[in-house]
Amino acid sequence: MEFIKVTNYQDMSDKACAIMIEKINNLKNPVLGLATGSTPEGLYQKIIEQYKQGKVSFKDVTTFNLDEYVGLSREDVNSYYRYMQEKLFNHVDINLERVHLPNGTASDLAEECRMYDKQIEQAGRVDLQILGMGINGHIGFNEPGTPFNSRTHVVDLAASTLEANARFFPSLADVPTQAVTMGIATIMESKEILLLVSGEQKAEAIARLAEGEISEDFPASILRNHPNVTVVVDEGAMVKL
Ligand code: GLP
């Protein structure tokens, strides 16, 4: 696991953008794993700027997002599908047929999960997976206690995650209590992983990632076993190291 230390959120986003563009430009049919949340928003803004300047094209890019809330349709303002459209897809030349997010309104969610893993496999696996990290170490929506060998599955969200994500909803009661997430084993099969971490609220989590033991109690810790992980971390998130 390689740590790249940067000053602030902007620098983290710039660095991530440079890594992502290099990956897209060096592969014939790049498969990207994408994340939502506040962390990658700056990265998506930067990449749109680069796209507008002709530095990158999404024409041949396939994407798989990490997760989606159960019960929210694609059109719902709080769905991750909508988030991705607004923050990235609507602004670049991506072919929407190559865009994949779990369908949180599928009538058979277990089948949806199986299909999602199959689609990732058929696409040749993820070349570069962008990850954020929850304050409790969750990756995607894999909460503490999730088996390391898990595939894409339905999860009950932890209370701390519901509280953290309530800021996007009218009230805490409106946050869906379940989500579909790529499993930890699915994430670990990505060829390369880029973990972005910014801000003091993540300082405890970064300290645990860097210095704690590898345990299912702290999902992100498994990343230490992956051969190709880069962590771009800013000064705020390093205060406890
Ligand atoms: C969310 C998402 C994760 C994200 C994490 C951190 O709940 N499901 O994919 O990485 O929590 O979010 P943020 O970047 O807003 O801190």
Describe the structure.
- This protein is of the alpha/beta class and 241 residues long.
- It has one domain (2-235): 3-Layer(aba) Sandwich (Rossmann fold).
- It is 30% helix and 17% strand.
- It contains seven helices and ten strands.
- The protein has a seven-stranded parallel sheet with strand order 1-10-9-6-2-3-5, covered by helices on one side.
- Strand 9 (193-197), helix 7 and strand 10 (229-234) form a beta-alpha-beta unit.
- The longest helix is centred in the N-terminal third of the chain and has 18 residues, at 9-26.
- The chain is globular and about 40 Å long.
- It starts with a strand and ends in a 7-residue tail after the last strand.
Determine the CATH topology.
Answer: Rossmann fold
Strand content: 15-25%
In this entry the ligands are: 2-amino-2-deoxy-6-O-phosphono-alpha-D-glucopyranose
What profile does the largest beta sheet have?
7 strands, parallel
Question: How many DSSP H or I helices?
Answer: 7
Distance between the termini: 16 Å
Strand order of the largest sheet: 1-10-9-6-2-3-5
Q: What is the CATH domain class? A: Alpha Beta
What is the fold's blueprint, element by element?
Layout: E1 2-6, H1 9-26, E2 31-34, H2 41-52, E3 62-65, E4 67-69, H3 80-87, E5 99-100, H4 109-122, E6 128-131, E7 153-156, H5 159-165, E8 178-181, H6 184-188, E9 193-197, H7 203-211, E10 229-234
Parallel strand pairs: 1-10, 2-3, 2-6, 3-5, 6-9, 9-10
Antiparallel strand pairs: 4-8, 7-8
Residues 35-39, 66-67, 132-134, 140-141, 161, 165 line the site of 2-amino-2-deoxy-6-O-phosphono-alpha-D-glucopyranose.
